[in-house]
Amino acid sequence: MSEVVVPAAWVADRRDEVALVDVRDAWEFDGIGHVPNAVNIPFDSFRAGEHTAADEGGDSDDGETGMLPGGEAFADLMGAAGISRDDRIVAYDDHHGVFAARLLVTAELYGHDPAKLHLLDGDFSAWQRERETTSDATDVEPTTYEVADPTEIETPLVDADAVAAAADDPDAVVVDTREDWEYEEGHIPGAVRLDWRELVDDETRGLKPRDEMETILESRGVTPEKRIVLYCNTARRISHTYTVLRHLGYPSLQFYEGSLTEWEREGRPLETGS
């Protein structure tokens, strides 16, 4: 059984063995409470600023693509939270996991072993319904978090040329994880639409049952034998879909970090309509 997306019971049994990361805003973490033993690394802190994407061609301060924060900045955040590259990380948020998934993907792109990266199935609200929370500060012992250069290690990252080629490849599927109206206004030619929320159960706030997800994916041609190339606007929503497909055992996943922001900036073609 996959341990990419893990249930609350799995986390509760291992709270002392994993690094629990809450990516909500600090006021939520402190004021509303959090999972015991969790540390807070707010989403905005590991995300390149919007000025970066607009003014610097979509590159971070370290010259990396998309919305990556830069290796040094990410290392400082993780180290200050007491997390090392050897740690098994479980991340959560209060938005069905989409922000937490972005932390996990960022860690993977900087060299953290993906086998040690886990998403809580459900989110803080789901946890809070049935399990203990606390507002007590978590004791943290700062450490050194080592990062790798995403361009020098094997990662799922692909560039715009690779995405364009995939759109013409019968063995690949380019997947747009945005909402219907966004897709209709303009999408990469040949892309299929799969709103990331379609795989989420609004009641449990976690993933839908596996058979339901597989039925949805198959209806869009997103099947395990294909090479799946994911994009959205700024690589947040694809982080969730990427994590879910990893959970389902899809063997060939590619991640367009630049996403539509970069695609449009480069003047590449768009299709409109459903």
TrEMBL record:
A Pfam family this chain is assigned to: Rhodanese
Lineage of the species this protein comes from: Archaea, Methanobacteriati, Methanobacteriota, Stenosarchaea group, Halobacteria
Protein name: Thiosulfate/3-mercaptopyruvate sulfurtransferase
Assigned keywords, A-Z: Pyruvate, Repeat, Transferase
SUPFAM superfamilies in the cross-refs: Rhodanese/Cell cycle control phosphatase
A GO term for molecular function: thiosulfate-cyanide sulfurtransferase activity
Top-level lineage group: Archaea
Location of the Rhodanese domain: 14-136, 168-272
Region called Disordered, residue ranges: 50-69
